[in-house]
Amino acid sequence: MMRNRLAASLLAVALSTSGFATVPAYAAPPQSHDHDRDHDWNTPPQEFRDIQRQGFHDGIEGARKDYDNHRRADVDNRDEYRHPHVPDSAKADYREGFRRGYEVAMDHMMQGKHSSY
Where are the domains of the chain? Predict the structure, then answer.
């Protein structure tokens, strides 16, 4: 029993001094000041009304599904866009938001940046 403890202790010391158990200290990646690209690319424009915001978020989710399933990027192929489950009076606004969200998300996923739409 004492031999096992001694062997485990020696192994721990050997590993820690050889560099296997140490974590290299890397510098943090430089922080980008591109506000849109880093964390607000998925925020709907402030001028959007509630139904447009809902469409924007749904468009982002639709784009993620298409991207994850390796489908062609085409907002017109999304059922949620063609047949939104919103009142008839809100369909145009919903589709506008959906299209913008879809385009922004696809651009972000395909190119890693946000373009103005």
Answer: 46-117
